[in-house]
């Protein structure tokens, strides 16, 4: 044990070599049986230095974390596990607070696996130790452990197993919980002037209150129902409790009393939400208490958690139809608005400091929705709850307050700007009925004339010539405009657009960011569906604002946006500005963008170079690369010769990215290279040919995040130069197939593995790859059997569809049959036909229909018994099923709207596809415009060669299927063919 203590001490050494050597030795010892118990013995030793004990507790916790659930080598033997469980709780009561925390976490880890079924002694021991000590260090440690264990019942899906665990825990702990709670409550008054003791008592009370929450979450236990009045009396005492002794000098961090009161209100919210009928007799008392609590609680940040919980509870009560009578008096509603809502909407000094000094955080709270637990958001939710049952009354009260606030602002704008901020926020709260971050407002309070309010109060502030005056108010009016953009008349929006462009020059980060976001939002507004009309998907409705509306402000908008990007304000890359640049490039006339290509590309290249040196903001990087891709697409649509110019200008920074392996940018570089390669009007250049072999090197495939982009680039090579690359060099083809094997081995990359194969079979003649088919099928079907996944079957079917559709059935049949264990007809019946009904993409469905058509007419064995009465009809009907149930189309515009999800909901993906980097929707059968006509004409052609066969087959296939019979008849008439 002395050696272990020495090693633990050495892990704290300032000498790196000593520290690393000790860590290495301990890591080796950790994997040895018996080490965990030895470590517990060290922690129990009274003479071990505190630092050594702390380090030992961390090692013990990590050992438990590593081996308790996954221990194939038996590091923790069954006897050792029992020894640990029998001693851990006792040891936790003997050590200092720091070591206690680590041991408590160890109990949590073990308990997650073993409690309660395989650790029956834990809860009785914990309860016994709680009742046997008055040492609050031990009490708090034990309660923290219990709180952690019981959290398993929160938000967990109900099940028989869970309820058995809950029943056990209730039987063991529900009575002691009430006893301990009342005991702590009884200690408050005698220790009223003892801050240290009160701190311990309230720490324990909060833990007991959270345990109560966990044990009541799944259902209302009988014991708690029977003792509800006792509990509620104690909770009420806590909500009205005040103590000078526990008042904190810290304005930011909540004190012990506030934490307990917030926990109590969370309990009240739980009961009101889930057990309202049982809780009904206590509702009025707590409604009044919560009201008074909100009225008296100061605006300091340390009370924010308490206030937001209280506001949520009050909103639940007001919005509930059975409780609305509590708030029906006009004076009550007025007091709520004036004394609770307005004060909590008001911007505090700390909020203004955030606006000035940390604008990114302010923006995230204000327009990205990260303020879900702030006073402002909860006060707005309270107003909306009031409107649910008191719509007209609440609206009038809010309008009165707004008018008073605006008048106060106008009396002295420089001093009273915060009143205008409160007025606009209150108006947003009462006016918006339904809203989404991406789509804007879709339903407005019918009692409010939003356009009138905008014209009279918002527009004058928005069009003020001084872009730097009253920055908070400027940000508010831009936000108001952007929120109600769908409701604004087009002529007004077009009039405001130049002012938004001017506001891009504002020195306030928040103001010019909001202006950029508003410009972006304007050009994503679509026509609203007509009243009473069938709902049309948003991607099918026309954009309201077009290139004509953008043209007058295009040049100054780009100038101002790039000025922000080049300023690199505060070292932060502004994703909203980058997104606005992207939007303008995509919405402007391609001819206009083509004329400005040189200047715009220079600006983007400059920013790209800076990002290469310090890639910090994934959203910004994405929109920057989308802007580059959009510029390429627009310019090359006007003059394809631009592609080579883009290659020349972008290659230097791209080489930096690839040589330095800048992982944040490499996927985008590969995608843009693919785009440029596909857009080249001339043959593939020598530069691209020399780049191809390194792409196949295994080193490039170590980073999984690069895989989709690399496949996208290899697909472009196949589309543009399959013959010059893999077609001319079997080694390169083998390299591609090696990549296919790698991608096939990972569930997340199966789809792109088969996309890679599709590129090979689509653009190469069968003789180039025929010899590899047996191995391809062996790998594919082995993986299919192992995964037993519908998604895998779909990806495999998409590949085989393209292969059969392009080159016929024979190669696939022979490739499968050469393996011995595979049969094409079995695959057709058990995988392909069932999968055909689940294929989603339009072009994938088209490929499947074309391929199955060829199977119908090119597989003679299917037309003879017994397959002629079983498999052939199923294949025939599968094609008709594809025609009858077409998949929804996905176009570039609807994909473009998906970019808003990146902007508004966060960015967590290791790979994100460049929407504007797609040159076209992949279609392996562009030459077949109408697969329905192709289907019947192919059958008609085959029937001419083999008369009197197909009519009988078709009649048998359609027997008892009138919908498919009608479908086939309609297609035949459209094609004007006869089947003989």
Automatic annotation (TrEMBL):
SUPFAM superfamilies: ARM repeat (SSF48371). GO terms for cellular component: cytosol; nuclear envelope. Keywords: Cytoplasm, Nucleus, Protein transport, Transport. SMART domains: IBN_N. Residues 22-94 form the Importin N-terminal domain. It comes from the Eukaryota. It holds the Pfam family CAS_CSE1. Its main location: cytoplasm. InterPro entries: ARM-like (IPR011989), ARM-type_fold (IPR016024), Importin-beta_N (IPR001494), XPO2_C (IPR005043), XPO2_central (IPR013713). It is found in: Cytoplasm; Nucleus. GO terms for molecular function: nuclear export signal receptor activity; small GTPase binding. One of its GO terms (biological process) is protein import into nucleus. Belongs to the XPO2/CSE1 family. This is Exportin-2. It comes from Hondaea fermentalgiana.
């Amino acid at each position: 044990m002395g050696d272990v203590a020495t090693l633990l001490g050495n892990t704290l050494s300032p000498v790196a070599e000593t520290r690393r050597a000790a860590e290495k030795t301990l890591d080796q010892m950790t994997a040895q049986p018996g080490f965990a118990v030895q470590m517990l013995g060290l922690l129990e030793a009274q003479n071990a230095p505190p630092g050594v004990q702390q380090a030992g507790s961390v090692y013990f916790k990590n050992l438990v974390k590593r081996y308790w659930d996954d221990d194939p080598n038996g590091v923790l033997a069954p006897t050792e596990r029992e020894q640990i469980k029998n001693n851990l709780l006792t040891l936790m009561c003997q050590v200092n607070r720091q070591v206690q925390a680590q041991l408590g976490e160890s109990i949590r880890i073990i308990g997650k696996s073993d409690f309660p079924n395989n650790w029956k002694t834990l809860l009785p021991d914990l309860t016994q130790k709680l009742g046997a000590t008055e040492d609050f260090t031990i009490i708090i440690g034990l309660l923290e452990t219990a709180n952690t264990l019981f959290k398993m019942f929160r938000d967990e899906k109900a099940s028989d197993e869970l309820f058995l665990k809950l029943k056990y825990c209730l039987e063991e702990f529900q009575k002691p919980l009430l006893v301990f709670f009342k005991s702590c409550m009884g200690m408050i008054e005698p220790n009223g002037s003892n801050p240290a003791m009160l701190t311990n008592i309230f720490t324990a009370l909060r833990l007991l209150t959270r345990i109560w929450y966990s044990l009541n979450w799944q259902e209302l236990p009988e014991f708690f129902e029977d003792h509800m009045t006792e509990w509620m009396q104690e909770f009420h005492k806590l909500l009205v409790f005040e103590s000078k002794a526990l008042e904190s000098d810290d304005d930011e961090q909540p004190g012990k009393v506030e934490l307990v009161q917030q926990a109590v209100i969370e309990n009240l919210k739980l009961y009101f939400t889930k057990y309202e009928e049982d809780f009904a007799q206590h509702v009025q008392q707590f409604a009044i208490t919560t009201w008074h609590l909100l009225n008296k609680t100061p605006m300091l940040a340390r009370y924010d958690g308490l206030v937001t919980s209280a506001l949520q509870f009050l909103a639940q009560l007001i919005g509930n139809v059975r409780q609305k009578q509590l708030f029906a008096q006009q004076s009550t509603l007025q007091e709520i608005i004036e004394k609770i809502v307005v004060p909590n909407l008001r911007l505090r000094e700390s909020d203004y400091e955030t606006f000035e000094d940390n604008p990114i955080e302010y923006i995230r709270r204000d327009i990205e929705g990260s303020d879900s637990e702030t006073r402002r958001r909860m006060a707005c939710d309270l107003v909306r709850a009031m409107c649910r049952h008191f719509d007209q009354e609440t609206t009038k009260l809010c309008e009165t307050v707004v008018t008073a606030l605006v008048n106060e602002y106008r009396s002295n704008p420089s001093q009273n700007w915060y009143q205008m901020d409160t007025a606009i926020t209150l108006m947003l709260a009462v006016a918006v009925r339904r809203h989404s971050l991406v789509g804007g407002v879709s339903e407005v309070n019918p009692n409010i004339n939003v356009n009138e309010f905008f014209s009279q109060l918002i527009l004058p502030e928005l069009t003020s010539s001084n872009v730097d005056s009253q920055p908070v108010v400027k940000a508010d009016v831009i936000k108001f405009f952007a929120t109600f953009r769908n409701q604004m008349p087009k002529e007004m929006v077009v009039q405001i657009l130049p002012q938004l462009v001017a506001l891009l020059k504002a020195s306030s980060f928040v103001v010019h960011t909001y202006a950029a976001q508003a410009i972006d939002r304007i050009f994503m507004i679509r026509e609203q569906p007509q009243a009473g009309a069938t709902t049309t998907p948003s991607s099918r409705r026309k954009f309201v604002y077009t290139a004509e509306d953008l043209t007058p402000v295009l040049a100054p908008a780009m100038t101002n946006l790039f000025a922000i990007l080049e300023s690199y304000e505060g070292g932060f890359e502004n994703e909203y500005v980058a997104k606005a640049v992207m939007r303008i490039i995509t919405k402007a006339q391609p001819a206009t963008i083509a004329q400005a290509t040189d200047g715009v590309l220079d600006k983007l290249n400059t920013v790209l170079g800076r990002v290469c040196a310090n890639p910090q903001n994934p959203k910004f990087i994405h929109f920057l690369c989308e802007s580059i891709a959009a510029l390429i697409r627009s310019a090359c649509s006007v003059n394809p010769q631009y592609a080579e110019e883009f290659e020349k200008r972008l290659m230097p920074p791209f080489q930096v990215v690839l040589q330095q392996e800048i992982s944040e940018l490499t996927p985008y570089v590969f995608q843009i290279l693919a785009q440029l390669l596909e857009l080249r009007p001339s043959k593939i250049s020598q530069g691209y040919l020399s780049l191809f072999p390194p792409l196949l090197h295994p080193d490039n495939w170590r980073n999984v995040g690069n895989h989709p982009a690399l496949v996208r680039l290899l697909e472009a090579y196949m589309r543009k130069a399959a013959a010059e690359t893999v077609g001319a060099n079997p080694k390169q083809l083998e390299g591609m197939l090696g990549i296919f094997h790698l991608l096939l081995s990972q569930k997340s990359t199966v789809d792109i593995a088969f996309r890679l194969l599709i590129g090979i079979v689509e653009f190469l003649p069968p003789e180039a790859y025929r010899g590899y088919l047996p191995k391809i099928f062996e790998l594919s079907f082995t993986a299919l059997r192992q995964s037993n996944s519908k998604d895998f079957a779909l990806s495999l079917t998409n590949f085989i569809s393209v292969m059969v559709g392009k080159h016929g059935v024979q190669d696939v049949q022979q490739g499968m049959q050469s393996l011995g264990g595979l049969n094409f007809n079995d695959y057709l019946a058990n995988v392909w036909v069932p999968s055909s009904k689940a294929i989603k993409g339009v072009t994938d469905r088209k490929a499947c229909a074309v391929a199955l058509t060829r199977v119908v007419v090119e597989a003679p064995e299917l037309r003879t018994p017994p397959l002629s009465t079983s498999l052939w009809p199923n294949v025939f009907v599968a094609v008709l099923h594809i025609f009858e149930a077409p998949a929804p189309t996905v176009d570039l515009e609807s994909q473009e709207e998906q970019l808003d999800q990146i902007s508004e909901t966060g960015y967590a993906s290791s790979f994100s596809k460049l929407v504007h980097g797609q040159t076209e929707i992949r279609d392996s059968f562009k030459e077949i415009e109408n697969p329905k006509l192709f289907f019947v004409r192919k059958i008609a052609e085959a029937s001419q060669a083999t008369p009197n066969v197909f009519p009988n087959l078709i009649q048998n296939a359609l027997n008892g299927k009138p919908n498919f019979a009608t479908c086939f008849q309609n297609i035949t008439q459209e094609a004007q063919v006869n089947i003989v």
